[in-house]
Amino acid sequence: xxxxxxxxxxGTVVAANDEFFAGKENLIEPxxxxxxxxxxxxxxxVYDGWETRRRRTPGxxxxxxxxxxxxxxxxxxxxxxxxxxxxxxRCAVEATAADGYPDVDELTGWTTLVPVQPLRGNEKHEFEVxxxxxxxxxxxxxxxxxxxxxxxxxxxxLPDPRELAGCPVDLVGAxxxxxxxxxxxxxxxxxxxLLLPDSAAVMGDGFETRRRRQDGxxxxxxxxxxxxxxxxxxxxxxxxxxxxxxxxxxxxxSGDGTPGRELLPEIxxxxxxxxxxxxxxGDPVTGLRLDLLPDGGLARFRLYGLPDAAAxxxxxxxxxxxxxxxxxxxxxxxxxxxxxxxxxxxxxxAALLGATAPR
Length: 359
Hints:
Jelly Rolls, 2 domains, disordered C terminus, hydrolase, 8-stranded antiparallel β-sheet, mainly beta, 8% helix
């Protein structure tokens, strides 16, 4: 599952009531927390996490995260790595949903995802979340104060259909639910990195296989976040200079994973280059196979196209039913009271997908 809160998918820590010893932004760093003993700054020992001062008044400390990818949260991880004598005694995690980019003071309707739980020092605490709603923000509360290294929110992306209807999008991007379903090898770096939204900063931010010493080639199989008709593939080999694939090939996969039509025949790559190729348009695609010939690494892979109308209908229905009540009222109006919908009422479909959305 994708970490919906991670800075790697553009998550942000929008506010915290205190961050005296260590900054709130560390909570969502994608890398594992590190520690170097006896490294002191103006406020004391430097910690790779979020740490508040010792509380001398009643209350709790908190930090609010705007999810980089809104969606259904399945599991929360509160990691106190390297915090031993300065971790909180307890924590709780709450969620809310809102359109746009509200200030923290504008966020209301908080719902508890993880009730108050005890914490231990230098340990990952995993909490399963049974809630099926779509969330945009999380609030971590710690009792009464202390330090947390990382907050993870693993779950399923659920994009807003209003942002996709009628627009070309990256059909396989992690932000709309694209994900890796199979991979021949990922020795140096995981294939999931291919689908992250921002450009890779260094070679290690991409995907790379070991050196192939036998016949055949390496490959990655991908499920599209939203099925659609692709028009353009972007194969980004930046940072890969002596280890880019010699060539790539792109093939559509059917629902059972068997190869279908060829979207892009074998074509050579240049090291350290971002390539853009037109692909063979046709029927909507749900999955694809990217062949690396024979092996090597890539920074990112994009597949731009138009979402399929039937897939958008299904997405809009799921989105409308997954909105928490206060947000549903704001988005759907009085019609929110009739949920769950089996099919979207015509006016709501028009509001979510546009009055001229194809049927």
